């Protein structure tokens, strides 16, 4: 029997994306279809989203959704079925979904994302005549209040209505969504919700905390991260609660969309290729180097990332000297922390270090296809998608042994090299000495071109799609409804 799932998310590729959440929310509907799971995705009506909604039809209206009228639009993004909240007073702002032009959180973010969760809960309880999901699947803090609205919405007052089970997926525990306890009434939550077993979090309201406490099941995006977040070092204040969830917490590895990320058909590349035609990859390195004035004969390191300390990229400016002294070059695509952006700007060097500050999907593809290795020295990484994209394109990832990076990259150590299974490089910690050591190891192995090509083939042969993980989500959902 087809299982109906309502996904509630703030991002959805290709409509609106600031990071991996969008990729995952955008890929899961197609990945789950072969499992006989039909996903409908609820999304805020950002200006980037509304014009791209195909065949939009009003599904219902709200007279007052946290301060203004709103319309729920039903439509499509290709084969994906969407419900979009058109509420100009909440979402009608250009640019990044969470912050204003100066980088500050929108002050009404609690209301904006409470509205998303509230509409999700209403849909779960049968808002639209003739349709009710079997399971609701909330992503990250923006959907965190959804289980709270389901839990505290007073089924007792409406006998006969039932609540579908909820799953909460944590894509990054660092973003928790908190607000003042005084907003409880504004958010439409009853006084009893403000409790340790509800939305209360260190004297305020915790969106993600509420989701973790009240969802029927909590997942995160890799098995290693699922273990790390139950420790005081990795739990960011929520480890006790996560430990208490016991077997109701599990890790399901993310995949990437193998059609979007396919070097054989990718129109962003100078030359398509696959593992059998690896030689053609060189044309992409040529094109990338030509664009940035770099020498294609050098070992080329790429970065495609948010520029933040989470990603460990504060280690890179100091390491650039080592890279360049050893005859390497670097191309960096990213945006984020102004101090880091300034540090990279200061380190730009013609012929050795090229920088593109900003977000550029096409360039990201060309870097995966043209760079020899991708630097991901993260301090923590729930799953990470860039190492998966890189491996698929034969660009060997250089990662810290944390979270999903530990779960997906096979380190080029003696044993793995002997067995011929290495797909990248793992360093033990995001600290300068380990980074420098690993970069040296990369340079040494790169000089053995035949060995390097073997590693590229291994990487390109890794299973990085959704197949296995989609089956795990489907099993989880079905297990909750019986
Ligand atoms: P995050 O923590 O940012 O979600 P992930 O590795 O999970 O990190 O996902 C990052 C996604 O965003 C990947 O698809 C990557 O290609 C993309 N990305 C990151 N920075 C940029 C950028 N500056 N330009 C284009 N794509 C980017």
Question: Could you characterize what this model shows?
Answer:
It is a single chain. This protein has 482 residues and is α/β, with parallel strands linked by helices. It folds into two domains: 3-255 and 466-481, Glycogen Phosphorylase B (Rossmann fold, 3-Layer(aba) Sandwich); 275-460, Glycogen Phosphorylase B (Rossmann fold). It contains 17 helices and 18 strands. The strands form three sheets. Strands 3-4-5-2-1-6-7-11-12 form a nine-stranded mixed β-sheet, sandwiched between helices. Strands 15-14-13-16-17-18 form a six-stranded parallel β-sheet, sandwiched between helices. The model has no long low-confidence stretch (mean pLDDT 96). Bound molecules: adenosine-5'-diphosphate. Adenosine-5'-diphosphate is lined by residues 19-20, 23, 304-306, 333-335, 359-361, 364, 384-386, 389.
Keywords:
482 residues; alpha/beta; Rossmann fold; 9-stranded mixed sheet; 6-stranded parallel sheet; globular; binds adenosine-5'-diphosphate
- Beta percentage is 15-25%
Give the mean pLDDT.
Answer: 96
CATH class of the largest domain: Alpha Beta
Alpha-carbon distance between the two ends: 12 Å
How big is the Rg? 23 Å
Number of helix segments? 17
Tally of domains: 2
CATH architecture of the largest domain: 3-Layer(aba) Sandwich
Care to count the β-strands? 18
Q: CATH-wise, what's the superfamily of the largest domain?
A: Glycogen Phosphorylase B
Helical content, roughly?
25-40%
Regions with little confidence, pLDDT below 50 for 5+ residues: none
Strand order of the largest sheet: 3-4-5-2-1-6-7-11-12
Ligands in the model, by name, code or SMILES, are: adenosine-5'-diphosphate
The major pleated sheet works out as: 9 strands, mixed
Judged by helices, strands and strand pairing, the structural class is: alpha/beta
How is the CATH topology of the largest domain named? Rossmann fold
Shape: globular
């Amino acid at each position: 029997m087809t299982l109906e799932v309502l996904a509630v998310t703030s991002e959805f590729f290709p409509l609106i994306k600031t990071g991996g959440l969008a990729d995952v929310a955008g890929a899961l509907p197609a990945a789950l279809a072969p499992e006989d799971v039909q996903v409908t995705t609820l999304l805020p009506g950002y200006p980037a989203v509304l014009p791209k909604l195909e065949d939009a039809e009003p599904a219902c209206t709200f007279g007052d959704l946290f301060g203004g009228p709103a319309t729920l639009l039903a439509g499509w993004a290709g084969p994906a079925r969407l419900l979009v909240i058109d509420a100009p007073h909440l979402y009608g702002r250009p640019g990044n979904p969470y912050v204003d032009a100066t980088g500050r959180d929108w002050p009404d973010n609690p209301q904006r994302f409470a509205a998303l969760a509230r509409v999700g809960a209403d849909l779960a309880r049968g808002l639209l005549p003739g349709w009710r999901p079997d399971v609701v699947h909330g992503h990250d803090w923006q959907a965190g209040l959804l289980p709270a609205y389901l839990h505290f919405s007073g089924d007792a007052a409406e006998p006969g209505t039932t609540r579908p089970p909820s799953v909460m997926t944590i894509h990054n525990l660092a973003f928790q969504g908190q607000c003042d306890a005084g907003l409880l009434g504004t958010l439409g939550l009853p006084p009893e919700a403000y409790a340790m077993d509800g939305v209360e979090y260190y004297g305020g309201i915790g969106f993600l905390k509420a989701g973790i406490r009240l969802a029927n099941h909590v997942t995160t995006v890799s098995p290693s991260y699922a273990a790390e977040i139950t420790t005081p070092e990795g739990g960011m204040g929520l480890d006790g609660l996560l430990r208490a969830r016991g077997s109701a917490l599990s890790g399901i590895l993310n995949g990437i969309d193998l059609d979007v990320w396919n070097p054989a058909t990718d129109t962003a590349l100078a030359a398509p290729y696959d593992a059998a035609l690896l030689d053609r990859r060189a044309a992409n390195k040529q094109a990338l180097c030509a664009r940035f004035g770099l020498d294609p004969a050098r070992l080329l390191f790429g970065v495609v990332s948010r520029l933040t300390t989470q990603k460990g990229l504060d280690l890179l400016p100091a390491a650039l000297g080592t890279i360049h002294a050893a005859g390497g070059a670097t191309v960096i695509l990213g945006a984020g922390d102004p101090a880091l952006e300034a540090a990279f700007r200061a380190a730009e060097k013609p012929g050795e270090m090229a920088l593109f500050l900003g977000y550029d999907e096409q360039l990201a593809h060309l870097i995966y296809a043209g760079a020899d290795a991708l630097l991901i020295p993260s301090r923590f990484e729930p799953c990470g998608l860039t190492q998966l994209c890189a491996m698929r394109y034969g660009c060997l990832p250089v990662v810290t042994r944390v979270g999903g990076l530990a779960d997906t990259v096979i380190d080029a150590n003696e044993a793995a090299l002997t067995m011929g299974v290495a797909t990248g490089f793992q360093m033990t910690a995001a600290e300068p000495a380990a980074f420098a050591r690993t970069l040296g190891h990369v340079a040494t192995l790169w000089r053995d071109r035949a060995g390097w090509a073997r590693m590229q083939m291994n990487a390109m042969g890794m299973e990085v799609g959704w197949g296995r993980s989609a089956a795990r989500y489907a099993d989880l959902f079905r297990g909750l409804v019986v």
